[in-house]
Automatic annotation (TrEMBL):
Gene3D superfamilies: 2.40.40.20, 3.30.200.210, 3.40.50.740, Dimethylsulfoxide Reductase, domain 2. This is Molybdopterin oxidoreductase family protein. Its cofactor is [4Fe-4S] cluster. SUPFAM superfamilies: ADC-like (SSF50692), Formate dehydrogenase/DMSO reductase, domains 1-3 (SSF53706). Residues 14-70 form the 4Fe-4S Mo/W bis-MGD-type domain. InterPro entries: Asp_de-COase-like_dom_sf, MoPterin_dinucl-bd_dom, Mopterin_OxRdtase, Mopterin_OxRdtase_4Fe-4S_dom. It is found in: Cell envelope. Its main location: other.
Amino acid sequence: MTQPVIDTSPPVSDEVRQTTCYMCACRCGINVHMKSGRVAYIEGNRDHPVNKGVLCAKGSAGIMQVNAPSRLRAPLRRVGPRGSGRFQEITWDEALDIAAGWLGRIRHDDPAKLAFFTGRDQSQSFTSFWAQNFGTPNYAAHGGFCSVNMAAAGIYTMGGAFWEFGQPDWDRTRLMLLFGVAEDHDSNPIKMGIGRMKARGGRLIGVNPIRTGYNAVADDWLGITPGTDGLLILALIHCLFQAGRIDLDYLARYTNAPVLVDAETGLLRRDGAGKMLVRDRRSGALSAFDSPGILPDLAARDGADRTVFQWMAERYLDPAHAPEAVAERCGIPAARIRALAAELAHAAFDQAFELDQPWTDFRGERHATMTGRPVSMHAMRGISAHSNGFQTCRALHVLQIILGTVEVPGGFRFKPPYPKPSEAHPRPHCHAHPDRPLDGPHLGFVHGPEDLALDPDGRPARIDKAFSWENPMSAHGLMHMVIANAHAGDPYPIDTLFLYMANMAWNSSMNTAGTMKMLTDTDENGEYVIPRIIYSDAYSSEMVAYADLVLPDTTYLERHDCISLLDRPICEADAAADAIRWPVVEPDRDVRGFQTVLIQLANRLKLPGFTADDGTPRYRDYADYIVNHERKPGIGPLAGFRGDGDLTGRGPANPDQLNRYIANGGFFSTHIPAGADYYKPWNMAYQDWAVGMGLFDKPQPYLFQLYLEPLRRFQRAAEGHGDRQPPDHLRDRIRRTMDPLPVWYPPFGDTDVDTDAYPLHALTQRPMAMYHSWGSQNAWLRQIHGRNPLYVPPEIWARHGFRDGDWAHLISPHGTITVPVALHGGLNPNTVWTWNAIGKRKGTWALDERAPEATKGFLLNHLIHELLPPKGDGLRWSNSDPITGQAAWFDLRVRIEKAAPRDEADPAFPPVTSPVGRGPAYLRWRVGK
């Protein structure tokens, strides 16, 4: 009998193309398997420094993004009313002519009339360069409504922050403290790191109102009350000071703890060269902080002037910071807080170790070993997205620093090009002039009132009011305020709103219904209040319907991208690394990568920076820009394979650079030399290596800033000092919130709302299988998260008599939604939550109008407003952190009521007409033979 021949190992692919994933911001390396020129499947690249072959569900599902029915097919011009979704397909020449016509008139008249804001793209050094050369002051990316508190607090305090700026020393840490981290950010490296740490017997402690994801595998979980993380952290600092369990030598050598504070002004004492002054324990003399051979004295005095350390001890030893004083508000028993402080101290000091690795510090002192303190911390949006988030993030960094756990073996380590002091970053620029580029970068770090972005009359110079007295240190801008301010003409009207990957008509906005109305409102002449809207997206998202001109982007496997050291690189703590994406498949639609479209617009507009002296374009497309652009001589977007292909960091452009990256797996990595990989801010071997790499122009060692002098400068202005004065109605808020030592104050959602009427906190969290909004239209990922209930803790569940399948009204001061509910045992008892961005508007994303995302999926955004409720003072205050302008998404207060069962969540908006129609009921295709 003849047996059938079965091929048990058919070829998976006939070619593998290596590139960088874009299903989240993790930027993992991927192997894209091809059959007959089409994507067959995606796996992790085992040689890649980020993920080492590990790939999550999102990454594997990237194939469904490239095949999504929701992909836009051609440029679109609106032919129906805004919001209707009625468009006409046009050619690229027509689209670029329209856009260049609108933008050219603005640039010739007043470049500030263009507001150009981008979402979670990964080319912000490029988009900001374009906007700067256009000349508008109104540019920023999505960080202002994501985690600017985290980034700004980290850079101002210690020269870098969590996630893209640094990582735990996974192979040596023994205790990790995790604050407010959702599952979608940096997920593969965190999962891999936690696994390695726990395999060595290390402990993970989660501090989060919600126990999911990383917190679900934590050895201990503290279900803290939202917005009180700062109280908990300051209580831990109190306990450590009280027990004397702090690293005094580290504080004296590497921080501004020994710097003298002028008792009269509250400013740091400085010498004639502007360097901070300390008293040398050896000689007793006042010296510049970086003087060779000195050992700064933490206990020094000079008349009435005391050190920062003494200010800290006085403040944090106050009984108001004791665990017993804060336990009820935090929802964490005092004994548990004290036990956590003891555990941190035990790991940092009793389990300390030394590496036999000599190194030389910036004062010229030679150290025979490196001291390891195996405590690490990580945090993200959960503590950032509150109106007290900046000071809370600062407090967390102070906790790390007093334990001596930053940039030491076993602790938190920076990734190149960080660390660098806040002074090394640019100040913001805002002076717009017709037909001229902006006078410098839009975004930066202010160090006092003199750096604010104000017009000659003292009014905000930017449409989002970033870097104004309302939000002085808003390093990432305030994207959530752009549409509301433009609609109100406050501080001035704009002509064109230009958005990329920012779904502001839906899940990227607070006050979603109000935002859609603002986008469609007309004036007394019947003209749109926001006259023109240009939008670029790869998919038929909710925002597409509100655009006048749509410039369709490619998917991430169809374009060039640059994950650059100038922007958001893929570095690890022991290596500098960057990466590219490249078109592993060609688009089957009339679409173009947005970055190339910007270059084509720049060429039409003849923008400086993109145009040679003879008027010819400098760059054909984005790939040409990546290779040939230089931010300064020898420094370009990519650090690898420069010059003849053998130069790293600095060197002439290499025309074959992209091919070298492709041949290397889509990335480049170079390791920090041994002995330079710890103590980076003070280690001269690292400083010299960074200069050679082009990360710095010269060594720039610095001290960690426990006492943040720029905050004190703003306080002094509020007290009446200096030439630039804040408006009277902001003086008290600036004095109260901008304290140079970390403080805690209640979130504005608690003080500006009747908490008896709205007793519950409401939060959103992104699931591990999704990222922003585009993941939930993915045919594979929809099977994991096609709908989202409101999760309710057991006490509230029982009190309201909820049962499986029930619905509830969730009510905030801004509105009401009606949603399905589910029981969740891992919750703070006064907190409800749901997954973010699952809900979709009917007619969008090529989904059926009966799809669960459009019926059972919902957004908490409908309950949040970009403005706080009226206070009775005649003013409307932004729902933001008063220091950075970070959107305070997580300050939301609500109450819950049982509702009758229904078929759909409410509010349910009328469907929009989709320019791509509806996708098939089933996605079927065959790859290869």
